[in-house]
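Contributing new records

If you add data, match the layout below exactly. Sequence lines come first and carry their own label; structure lines follow with theirs. Keep one chain per record. Anything else will be rejected by the validation script.
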Amino acid sequence: MVRVAGVRFKKACKVYDFEAGEMELHPGDSVIVEVERGLGMGTLVYSPREVDPAVLARPLKKIVRKADAVDIERLGFNTERENEAFAICKERIIKYSLPMKLIRVEYLFDSSKAIFYFTSDTRVDFRELVKDLAATFHTRIEMRQIGVRDEAKMIGGLGPCGRELCCSGFLADFEPVTIKMAKEQNLALNPVKISGICGRLMCCLSYEHDFYQSERKRDREKERESVRDGGKDTSDTGKGEEKRQRPDRDRGKKPGKAAQGQQQGHKSGCGGCGRHDKKKHRPRDEGKPGQVAEGKPGGADGKPGQGADGKPGQGADGNA
């Protein structure tokens, strides 16, 4: 059996397995490990566990030792050199008028190489830039072009939800995200709302994709069962869909006759208000005195009301 421990080199970076040997290690310990480029310094993510060598795809590199004060001091020195190299490289990019955007500079633990990460929409001829940087820093120079999602991962920031970006917070790998995922979740296909700060579809669209697929499959199975039972949908999902869609079906419809106050047997325009004569189908009070807008109503003695000019009031048809 082999004791295997997980080590991470950068925040939100992929966790790599290393052979721990007989060392006593705990999560959070800084360790020096073997890498392809020499030595590297990382943080232990999980404690060593016993693993059968037969299940390993290839032999693992080893954890050399725990990081000491000298190693931590060297890491701080490399960080200072990275900041210095970043500022100088930006000046050189402007000097040579190169169509590129510098994102980050990373020194290897032993300072044997400096890696410059950049983005560009076109092919860049940076041969003169590499010569200039190599003469300035006296180390090997590597220019590495990255995409917009890797740029967001390195820079970090806050997403539309107000939380730290998933890619810079905990995502180790980028999973494929498609517009179909947004459609299956009934999201508005507004590019502003479903895109992250990198301009690509948000990674969180894939988090619940499997759940939506399983729920749709379950709903289809219940629909087939309801058809076999005689067309009655006895599932809770069917009832929920009916309740959810009912307001959409009624939206935009005019209220019925009962809501308008109409009764059966009356012509349109009557309204069934009870103030009309059914035989002549005209207002009962039509033609009576005292119905002029400006006239005075009839008095208590039963005499007809008078208008503003003192004459008896007239009805709507002009008759007293």
